[in-house]
Amino acid sequence: MSTRKFSVVFYILIGLAVFGVFYQLLFNTAELFKYILMTVGFAALLFGIFYFFMKKRNASGFSNQYKKAVKQSKQKYGGSVQDKQTYNAALRKQKKKKLDYKRPRKKASHLRVIDGKKDKKKNRALF
């Protein structure tokens, strides 16, 4: 029963909000647009701040993980490891290679087609 009361209250609040928006649109249009622009601007500002901090945190995490992997690889193999620039160059080369069109394969020379009884096939559309 409590969910029923909750849904009724929810619908009443939504109805009042819609009524308020229409009222503002009819009688106080300039203030409504000003309020909408301020809300959108505030949301964009919050999104920008959130995106900026998340991007910084992810970028530093990647470099720390990369450094750790290089260190482990040097310990394991004891030699020089490709640095980040050569690694990126190799990735670019792979992407370019994938974008190239595939060459058609040559037919095997030891295989040939044997003509069978093509004339004796029945046309199923005539049945």
Automatic annotation (TrEMBL):
InterPro entries: SA1362/YqhP-like. It comes from the Bacteria. Keywords: Membrane, Transmembrane, Transmembrane helix. Residues 93-127 are annotated as: Disordered. The chain crosses the membrane at residues 7-26, 32-53. NCBIfam families: SA1362_fam. This is Uncharacterized protein. It comes from Salinibacillus xinjiangensis.
